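Researcher: Here's the sequence for the chain we discussed earlier.
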Amino acid sequence: MGFLAWIVVGLIAGWLAGQVMKGGGYGVIVDIILGILGGVLGGWIFGMLGIWHGGGMIGSIIVAFVGAVILVWITRLLKKA
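Model: Thanks. This is the structure I predict for it:
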């Protein structure tokens, strides 16, 4: 995937994670960063579980979304502490 595709996947996944986790997101830039980092985390988690996401844009968004939700949850826990 190209750099632009990673940005798009990160933006979508970060925005979706912010919406699902109740409350607003952290802003476009942080949502993109959380989405991209979520893609890395999600890819690692899916790999450890032996789950193949099938590739493609939709599969990448799902994996990044799962990872981004976990990261948003962790950042909100740290923010409260």
